[in-house]
Design goal:
It contains 12 helices and 11 strands. By secondary structure, the protein is of the alpha+beta class. It folds into 2 domains: 165 residues, Zincin-like (2-Layer Sandwich); 199 residues, no CATH class. The strands form 3 sheets. Strands 5-4-8-9-10-11 form a 6-stranded mixed beta sheet, sandwiched between helices. A hairpin with a 5-residue loop joins strand 2 and strand 3. The protein is elongated and about 80 Å long. The chain starts with 12 loop residues before the first helix and ends with a strand.
């Protein structure tokens, strides 16, 4: 009969220690973090050390010594991920396979789990390996593959066949959520921004409400903004970030969230139920559009302030105290959003105001929150 620490699927922390696997588990955890940093990705990933998955009822054809599970929320949306690693793999395999497999699993999340489950179909494993190849370059990738060939006891023909398949595979394009408002706004920024920041509002038509850019803050035209809001149509606000060239690596900044809080308040004090969206656009070698904003209790706080303002207008009461409280709320929500998101998306860049030097790319970012959201839309 097998000892208790060698049966069942998940190995407890006590059994990990008893089997002397703590250093190996810490090393693998570090390799996962390094893989995300190298790929420009930021996900909530847990590491689970397991015994033989096949003995626990998993299909031996679909899982190996390293495989990833998706954790979904109540709406069945991807929320976080679990990388399962067998104790036997940790005990017996060299560090180079820790590095190779962690890159493979993060590529798997990026290419298939996040953007469309198994969208690369029968080529899924080759697609993830192609992602690793593109990331590390062919010389280093061949070192990975030779180590994997020894692990799988391949002969030279199997090695060459796998390398050819990985090099030749064509990835299925990721889905896009670009809509007409995105296309019109991106084209306007491309033709009119001239490297400067602008604020646009789309409510069936596109309106440039930019007044000036003073210091480091964009000023909007109050009269134009009021007219657009009072039209009573759903609103999509677009703010551009000047392109830095290369692949986009931008996120909404603290200022973007603070601006979103103010603009939400302006819209909701006219109509608390009007749909309001916020999107950041960056035009570089590619177009990146990220939607962001408030949900849950954060959104409730903004709406309460707007309702208080409406009630004060109806009574003829003073409005200045409400506006001051709203300004303080905008600043607080902006700081909370930065703490809630950017410490995970851009840990090296977290101190300070901005995140434009962030190495994480918006299409490879996911972190659950019940107050704020960031969602990549298009490229």
């Amino acid at each position: 009969m097998a000892p208790p620490c060698y049966v069942g699927l998940e190995i407890s922390p006590a059994c990990i220690t008893e089997r002397g696997l703590d250093p190996k588990a810490a090393l693998y955890r570090r390799k996962v973090d390094e893989a995300m940093a190298r790929l420009g990705a930021a996900y909530k990933i847990s590491l689970r050390i397991v015994n033989n998955p096949a003995e626990a009822g998993f299909d031996a054809e679909s899982v190996s010594d390293v495989f990833t599970d998706v954790v979904r929320n109540e709406e069945m949306r991807n929320e976080s991920f679990i990388i399962n690693v067998s104790a036997d793999f940790l005990e017996r395999q060299p560090e180079i396979l820790f590095e190779a497999s962690s890159l493979h699993e993060v590529c798997h999340v990026m290419n298939d789990d996040l953007t469309g489950y198994h969208r690369n179909g029968v080529n899924i494993e080759a697609a993830e390996e192609h992602c690793v190849l593109e990331t590390v370059g062919e010389p280093r990738y061949q070192e990975y593959l030779r180590a994997y060939a020894r692990y799988r006891h391949w002969d030279a023909a199997e090695y060459e066949l796998c390398l050819k398949k990985v090099k030749d595979v064509v990835l299925v394009p990721a889905p896009t959520e670009t809509d007409e408002a995105d296309r019109i706004a991106a084209e306007y920024f491309r033709n009119h921004a001239g490297g400067k920041e602008q604020l646009l509002v789309y409510n069936g038509e596109l309106h440039d409400v930019t007044l000036s850019f003073a210091g480091d803050r964009l000023q909007y035209d109050s009269e134009k903004m009021r007219a657009v809001i009072q039209a009573g149509k759903p609103l999509v606000f677009f703010h551009n970030h000047p392109a830095g060239g290369g692949r986009s690596g931008m996120f909404p900044t603290r200022d973007d969230f603070e601006e979103a809080g103010l603009l939400s308040f302006l819209a909701y004090r006219e109509d608390p139920q009007v749909p309001v969206e916020f999107r950041v656009v960056e035009l570089g070698d590619e177009t990146a559009i990220v939607s962001f904003g408030f949900i849950g209790t954060a959104l409730d706080e903004i709406r309460r302030g707007a309702l208080e303002y409406r009630a004060a207008v109806a009574r003829g009461a003073a409005l200045a105290p409400i506006e001051r409280r709203q300004s303080a709320l905008d600043s607080r929500l902006a700081a909370e959003s930065l703490n809630d998101y950017m410490q995970h998306a851009c840990p090296a860049d977290h101190p300070g105001k901005g995140t434009r030097g962030c190495n994480t790319h918006p299409q490879y970012f996911l972190w659950p929150s019940d107050r704020f959201f960031i969602h990549y839309r298009a490229h």
